[in-house]
Amino acid sequence: MLSQPPHLELWAGVECTVNRVGDQYFDQLERNGHATRLDDLDLFAQLGVRTMRYPVLWERTAPDGLESANWSWTDERLGRMRELGIRPIIGLVHHGSGPRHTSLIDPAFAEGLASFAQAVAERYPWVENYTPVNEPLTTARFSGLYGHWYPHGRDDLTFMRALLTQCRATVLSMQAIRKVNPTAQLVQTEDLGKTFSTPLLAYQAELENQRRWLSFDLLCGHVNRDHPLWGYLLASGISETEFEVFLDHPCPPDVMGINHYVTSDRFLDERLEYYPSWAHGGNGRHKYADVEAVRARAEGLAEPQLLLKEAWERYGIPIAITEAHLGSTREEQLRWLKEKWDAAQNLQHEGVDLRAVTVWSLLGAYDWNTLVTALRGHYEPGVFDLRSPRPRPTALAGMVRDLAHGKIPAHPVLDSPGWWRRPERLTYGPVPWAGQAGGAGEELTPRPSLVRPILIAGATGTLGSAFARLCEFRGISYQLLTRKEMDIANPASVDTALTELQPWAVINAAGYVRVDDAEREVDACLRVNADGPAILAESCARQGVALLTFSSDLVFDGTSLSPYVESDTVAPLNVYGRSKAEAEERVLKACPSALVIRTSAFFGPWDNYNFLTIALRTLAAGHPFLAAEDATVSPTYVPDLVHTSLDLLIDGECGVWHLANPGAIAWADLACLVAQQAGLDATRVCPVPTHTLGLAAPRPSYSVLGSERGVLLPSLENAIARYFHECEFVDQ
């Protein structure tokens, strides 16, 4: 039973949507691999998770009817959950429309799901808690009003039919379940995003804000002639008699599960000129833009405490936050979860019966950036990152473990506000944030200045400036230091900087980068590239500060026939590579918790001296461009490198990692590729043997980086496309 807990509980869940688009089913459990990994449950239990929203989905278990249902998967999973002491909240349909023989507008859907629900209850009579249909209102909107999912309706009647079908299925399913287990409880979930608007569109916002309660109102038996939407409901084409089942047989939730995402709240504005065309729409009375409130409204999102309190005051039913997830960078995921947890605790103290916060997407999610309407491979990590050979715990795993055991999370990045509370979030509307006097941004939460920073060594370099730029973008406090402010090769200078600035982490983006000059400036190269990182490592180890430093593909000799991985033996051919190999060894000996990232062949949108930019500028000027045809590398897009390095640093990863955009290409082929994409004359690229370029330092003919720890960067093709979108390289 879900009785009142003495303390706020930490629940969890895996993204398990099985939705239909046309004739294609999109199955998150297949994509995240949980369908074949039983030992995921052990990983969840090790975090301290004791209650999970868990799928026993109709479409997966009995796609061709109950008589041919396959229970082996659920038998094994639910059995293991019992052994681990994890209490399931069973979900039967998660944004789905049922097996192929039915749909959300099929009158037989409700009876079909009820039959399946009874079979589940009979097979697992010990299960107490159910969510027969996840987010019926949201699913009805996406399937019946916006046309995203099957049956792809775009009108009020299809929307209402889909909603009534799902709610009726919930009522009948709980009746069937309670025939088997009279004490079974309904944990009903819904997204309660709120709509805001300009004064002209207040009537539309009011409709949206009344409509968001409909699934709960129906289940509680509140939809009658006195309901504020009664006229709208009848005008949609639904008859009065169809509401009688809910009036005669109400099925109020035992726990209201409230979901709320950063894009759930909407803002409606008739001033179309301020918004992109894709946001334009209307209701037949007015044309207006419909955008994320967080991007256009000065006050931002509806406060989570207010949304939850609205639900409590409206129904007086116990509440749980049943999905807390943000698809973003790691620190923002931590901030979002902490904000939800704090809101829930505050409401408990105010007397609201708030049971739990659910960490959603333990394994992340696929293609929700397109509302799961296409298979594009966009992955959002969650508590675990699936881009490694086995699910890799992220910083969220540490937070979950803390919350599950009653500890207060204390990661340094939590000291700054999330992007949804920073002024630069405002990108739409008549006064988007741009630092203007009187702009809406002045009313927003200021960024704290007295928080522990990251120290970034290498202020004048490409990498150091990129880290500063993206730390600013991500709301991570930092100090970008010149060599005068912190000479990494001077122990006293390093100790002084760390003592005075009290960082939680140091990023060493400084370095001697002139590979050919290093052949004659050996001591200078070794001082900066080997002695400096070692000194940093010793100081960071003494003061308990995290360290991130960089190495290179040039630690390898090029004799491999396949991409180099982290455990491959280093054998540098030149002084620069030797300095990096020596640094790796000395850093990890002095500070085993340090993170050492090997990378390769930078290119990016913010400097004028990388290979791609120089090649394109040379070709645009009508000059030939010489490039090696016999040296194969794995180019690395600097923004991807920096973002992922920051995520790994926040996760507390250590040891050697390889980060490069997957793709092996010769320098000359790379120049031809980008020339063609830029519309330049690729015949001006002159492929030549490396030895003809007059380089002092020998290079490996093959230095492509792979990884045995995780492939975390998008493809080279993807990176080049974004490079063209984000940079300015041609003086025309």
What do you see in this structure?
The chain contains 23 helices and 30 strands. It is α/β, with parallel strands linked by helices and 732 residues long. Strands 1-4-5-6-7-9-13-14 form an eight-stranded parallel β-barrel, surrounded by seven helices. A six-stranded parallel β-sheet has the order 20-19-21-22-23-28, sandwiched between helices. It has a four-stranded mixed β-sheet with strand order 8-10-12-11. Helix 18 links the parallel strand 21 (505-508) and strand 22 (546-552).
Task: Describe the SSE topology.
Blueprint: E1 9-13, E2 18-21, E3 24-27, H1 28-31, H2 40-46, E4 51-55, H3 58-61, H4 72-84, E5 87-94, H5 108-123, E6 129-134, H6 136-145, H7 156-180, E7 185-191, E8 195-197, H8 202-211, H9 214-219, H10 230-235, H11 244-248, E9 255-259, E10 266-269, E11 280-282, E12 287-292, H12 293-296, H13 304-315, E13 319-324, H14 330-349, E14 354-359, E15 365-366, E16 379-380, E17 384-385, E18 392-393, H15 395-404, E19 454-457, H16 462-474, E20 478-481, H17 491-501, E21 505-508, H18 522-543, E22 546-552, H19 575-590, E23 595-599, E24 602-603, H20 611-620, E25 625-628, E26 632-633, E27 636-637, H21 638-651, E28 655-658, E29 665-666, H22 667-677, E30 685-688, H23 716-726
Parallel strand pairs: 1-4, 1-14, 4-5, 5-6, 6-7, 7-9, 8-10, 9-13, 13-14, 19-20, 19-21, 21-22, 22-23, 23-28, 24-27, 25-30
Antiparallel strand pairs: 2-3, 10-12, 11-12, 15-16, 17-18, 26-29
Helix pairs in contact: 5-7, 6-7, 13-14, 16-21, 17-18, 18-19, 20-22
